Structure formats: C-alpha cells, structure tokens
Amino acid sequence: MTIIGGGPAGLYSAFYSGMRDMKTKIIEYHPYLGGKVNIFLEKVLWDVGGQPPIHASNFLNNLIAQAMTFEPTICLSQKVDRIDKEEEYFIITTNTGENHYSKTVIIAIGGGIVEPIKLDLEGAEKFEMQNLHYTINGIERFKDKEILISGGGNAAIDWAVELLPIAKKLTIIYRSDELKAHESQIKKLVEHGVEFKLNTELTKLISNEDKTAIARVRLKENDVEYEMAMDDVLVCHGYNREVSLDFCESIAPVRNEYKQFNSEGQCKTSIPGIYAVGDIVAYEDKVYLLVGTFNDAVLAVNSAKKFIEPDATSYAMVSSHNDKFNERNRVILACYS
Ligand SMILES: Cc1cc2nc3c(=O)[nH]c(=O)nc-3n(C[C@H](O)[C@H](O)[C@H](O)COP(=O)(O)OP(=O)(O)OC[C@H]3O[C@@H](n4cnc5c(N)ncnc54)[C@H](O)[C@@H]3O)c2cc1C
C-alpha cells in the first residue's frame, strides 16, 4: 500500500497497515514528517485521546515512532504529481520523475502542501537562519528578546500571547486598521501593554555590521516611514496551500469544490483501491482534528486490506492477539519488572 502524505493521517495509516500485515510506503513532499503539526510544535495539546496534556513536539515524536513500528518505506522530498493505473497496479509519479507501483493508495495530503507566505523584501531569505521567523520552534530562544510580530490574524496574536510571559518587549504591526484575531486574546495583550501599530507594514530589513542578522527594520505607518531596532522578527502572513494531484481520467476520484475527496463510507473514494483520510476527505460529520485522522486511517486501511484480500477480517485483532506485538512485549515487559 502507498500512502501519499506523511502528516498525522498518513503516519497512523502506516502504523495500522503494519498491524494488518501490509507492506507500506509513505511519500511525503517535505524533507520531514508530521504535516501541519509542524506549524504548532510549541502548542500543548489537550484533545488527543489517551494523552495527558502534551507538547505538540512530543506528540509528533510519539506519532512518528509509532508509525515506524512496522518499518514502512519512507520517501521524503517527493511530491506526488499524478496517479495512473496499469492492470492491477496504480502508478504514482512524483516530481523527481520516480514511479511507485502499488495495489492500493491512501491519499493523506491534508490541507495540501502548506508553506508560510514569505516576506517579499530584498535579502529576507538570508536572515531565516538567524532572527527572521515564520513560526516558532523552541520558545525559550525568545527569552528577554524584543520581538516585532507582523500579522493581525489568529496565528500572530496567539504567538504573541505565548511569548508574552518571556519576551522583554512585543510590538505587533498589521497592514490593516482592524485586527482579525479572537477578541479575548487581543484584550490580554492590550492589558499587558503590548504595542500595536495598525496600518503599518515592513518595508526593509536592515542588517547588522557583519550582515548575519537583522539589526533594524524599516516600517511604513500610514504614510510615515521610520526605523525600529529589535532582536527578532516573526512574520505570520498566512500560508500558501497547494492541493494539486492529477489522475488519468479513468481513475479520477470525485472531489468537492474544496478539492477534498468525497467518501460514501469507510474512507473509500469513488475509485476502488483509492482511499482518502484526514483533512482531505469529506463525508457527513467528518471531524477535522487529530482524533478524526486516526479513525479515518483505521477505516481506510481496513478497506484496503479487504480490497486486496477479500477474505481478510474486517479489522485488526486487539493488541494481545498480534504476534508481532507479543514478540516485542517480552522486551517491553522486562523493563517494567
Ligand atoms: C494552527 C493549527 C492548530 C491546530 N490545533 C489542533 C489541536 O489542538 N488539536 C487537534 O486535534 N487538531 C489541531 N489542528 C488540526 C490538525 O493539525 C489537522 O487535523 C491534522 O494535521 C490533519 O492531518 P492530515 O495528515 O490529514 O494533514 P496534514 O497535517 O496537512 O498533512 C498532510 C501531509 O501531506 C503532504 N502532502 C501534501 N500534498 C502532497 C503531495 N502531492 N505529495 C506528497 N506529500 C504531500 C504535506 O506536505 C503534509 O505533510 C490544528 C491545525 C492547525 C493549522
């Protein structure tokens, strides 16, 4: 089985397909796994079954470790462009020109390829390794720093709230005259004296003497331009989303206006052998959260198993009936004794 997308839905599909004794491959566009969880690594997750409040980065590590249980093949840095079919095999073509052959396909491309909208300012790219950020990975780095945040949506304001207890100073700039984030979050920032500059945008990044980091920024507030010193710049201007995936006409599954794959049940698409899971599938009462991805993964893998082996059981036996787990349990249980 081939899983397209290595986010939560794809990762759990890989684990569960191992439980069903299926040979599995994940193809992921990014050079890393985890999908959208990588956007909110600093968040504490409260709503995942069986988990006490957990840091998203730890949750992601656990999810990846679990997905590796049955040693699936992982192909990173490959974007699946197109799917064709020849006899009983789907042919999955990626942007590297490589073809992957598979009897079943699980589409787990979530919101598509999601990448932050970057600053269109000269030389901005070279500061990305230093003090220009598009998300926060390791909040401690910002302790006692003067931070300029550009953006007025939920992401910008939520990060400001997270940074509030540790930053020395926060300044939020936004190009419009009205912020778009939740009012309660904005109120929190106002109460703590965070400075808001509306109708303001970044026009220039000015580097330090050895040109390794941004020392100052140039801002345009209404029609007035001026410079400001800061330690770090966090840009939250939203994300570009790319959900293109082509199929040869005879095997093109039905998609809705949001490019999601319609499912009538068990995460089956309109094409036998192709399944869709996670944020890219649409059916009545679908839950677009992590817990929803796990349920979809189980349904899709079980459907795929039956597609390949019609006499297989409808779902996997409980953990205690799994021979592979029993073998490993000896090692795990030895640690408890
Ligand atoms: C800011 C934010 C906060 C959130 N907080 C929570 C929360 O607190 N609790 C919760 O339950 N949920 C939360 N969610 C929702 C949760 O992140 C999603 O429901 C979940 O990530 C969906 O997983 P997925 O695998 O379907 O998709 P994604 O996470 O989007 O993963 C899809 C993967 O497919 C890859 N891909 C896409 N196209 C291709 C292609 N053509 N070829 C190869 N690879 C491809 C992408 O690069 C990506 O890695 C949050 C989401 C966001 C954005």
Q: Notable features of this structure?
A:
flavoprotein; 337 residues; FAD/NAD(P)-binding domain; 5-stranded parallel sheet; elongated; binds flavin-adenine dinucleotide
Characterization of this structure:
It is a single chain. The protein has 337 residues and is of the alpha/beta class. The chain folds into two domains: 2-115 and 240-336, FAD/NAD(P)-binding domain; 118-237, FAD/NAD(P)-binding domain, CATH 3.50.50.60. It is 23% helix and 27% strand. It contains six helices and 23 strands. The longest helix has 19 residues, at 290-308. It is elongated, with a radius of gyration of 23 Å. The relative contact order is 0.16. The model has no long low-confidence stretch (mean pLDDT 94). Flavin-adenine dinucleotide is lined by residues 4-10, 27-30, 35-37, 39-40, 45, 47, 79-80, 108-113, 245, 278-279, 288-291, 293.
Helix tally equals: 6
Which architecture of the largest domain per CATH? 3-Layer(bba) Sandwich
**Main beta sheet: strand number and arrangement?**
5 strands, parallel
Strand content: 25-35%
What is the CATH level 1 assignment of the largest domain? Answer: Alpha Beta
The ordered string of helix (H) and strand (E) elements is: EHEEEHEEEEEEEEHEHEEEEEEEEEEHH
- The percent of residues in helical segments reads 10-25%
- Give the neighbour order of strands across the main sheet: 5-2-1-9-22
Bound compounds, each kind once, are:
flavin-adenine dinucleotide
Radius of gyration: 23 Å
Uncertain regions: pLDDT < 50 for 5+ in a row?
none
Structure summary, number of beta strands: 23
Q: Indicate how many domains the architecture comprises.
A: 2
At the fold tier of CATH, the topology name of the largest domain is: FAD/NAD(P)-binding domain
Global structural class: alpha/beta
What is the CATH homologous superfamily assignment of the largest domain?
FAD/NAD(P)-binding domain
- Principal-axis shape equals elongated
Task: Compute the average pLDDT.
Answer: 94
Measure the end-to-end span. 38 Å
Cofactor: FAD
GO molecular function: ferredoxin-NADP+ reductase activity; flavin adenine dinucleotide binding; NADP binding
Domain FAD/NAD(P)-binding: 3-286
EC number: 1.18.1.2
